[in-house]
UniProtKB/TrEMBL annotation:
It comes from the Bacteria. This is Mannosylglycerate hydrolase MGH1-like glycoside hydrolase domain-containing protein. InterPro entries: 6-hairpin_glycosidase_sf (IPR008928), 6hp_glycosidase-like_sf (IPR012341), Glycoside_hydrolase_63 (IPR004888), MGH1-like_GH (IPR054491). One of its GO terms (molecular function) is Glc3Man9GlcNAc2 oligosaccharide glucosidase activity. It comes from Paractinoplanes abujensis. Pfam families: MGH1-like_GH. Belongs to the glycosyl hydrolase 63 family. One of its GO terms (biological process) is oligosaccharide metabolic process. Keywords: Glycosidase, Hydrolase. The keyword Cell wall biogenesis/degradation does not apply. Residues 29-430 form the Mannosylglycerate hydrolase MGH1-like glycoside hydrolase domain. The keyword Translocase does not apply.
Amino acid sequence: MSAELWNSAARVLEINWQDDHMVPSRRLYPHQWSWDAAFIAVGLAYVNPARAWRDLRSLFEAQWPDGRVPHIVFDPATAEADYFPGPAFWSVPPYANRPSHGSTGIVQPPLHAVAAWEVYRRASAHGAACVQQAYGELEWLYPRLVAQQDYLTTRRDLGEGGLAALVHPWESGLDNSPAWDAALAGVPADLSLLTTFRRRDLDVADAAHRPTDRDYARYVGLVLSYRAEQYSDTALLRRHAFAVECPSFNAILGAAELALAQIAAVLGRAAEADAHRERAQRITGAIVKRLWNPETRTFHVRDLHTGTLSPARCVSGLLPLMLPDLPAAQVDGVLAEARSPRFGLPDETGLPVPSYDRTAPDFDTRRYWRGPVWINVNWLLRRGLLTHGRLDEAKDLRAAMVRLVHRNGHFEYFHPKNGEGLGAPTFSWTAALALDLLADRSVPAYAKAG
């Protein structure tokens, strides 16, 4: 099984390489996506480390002067008509040395420092020349990764509580998660926008698997309002109808600081390494203070307009487990939530955890982030299990992920009851993370003893 899966995953990454970057899939996602690039680099480093670095560099070459890393970098060779919302819709002004309409104006989870550190850790297996290249890539990336963190922890701290806020569901990477339902309820759903701006995802994907038209109209409207302000973050909370703090996004923000501490140490910047570790601790404390619900004993999304926590119990609430300084009470609570019938770790189906509470009345087995299984968030959850010394459960989750992909293919996501592949086939991050799971470098460098 291992050789067959390894070879098929490597083929997917070869198929989806486009000049200087990786696309998530050829038909549905023909550009470069931000957090996809991070997941992809982790696995691509095993088979082509030069491309892993090039993919990250290509993304950060599109970084804005304020430090934000856009959630899509558009390929100028792809026609506007081939993808919506495309560059003309976003209408991003030219910046730095980027051409007009080169990217979107929103962000995605800042997993890139974690990815850069993992790619660097792989370098020793490829010889001295690869190690030398990796060091040079870290030198180039480090200040840009720091600028990304600075943007998110300052301009995006809309709640002034030490966490980054999201101003669009797409920024989470968990686009139509039930975690946003309460916050989105106050956002107008102008369906006439879908006449002016026609969805193109439904040309190549099943409508029953994708966000609804009502939600999509809200997504379009939120972009238009942000675009009208030229993507300015000044007084953003007052200006925008959607502003939330997400536990998974901020857990990744904290994990990025820990990875930056490792990178800074390699680069001989001891004082900066200490500062990164301190920031990770502050982010962890803020997640516990602002996003923990002592009644449910798990983490939830906070709506910054109402100050309330979402009642939805989503996989995003499990991912603060990635943080080694998470207090014992929260570790125990998250583990209990993961093991409960809502997520089933381990599950009698033998599948990884779903994206949403299996017992909820609106659990949907096929609709994107409202129930299906995703390899990337399970990979992050496994990282959390390893961080807190839950090695047996991490081993079981790894086996479930490997088995799922081997049996059903490198799909974007999977049916949470029968494992059927859903969404885009030959999906890059599924293939890349399969390589990492097969290689099984189990313990993150900053793991906490169990």
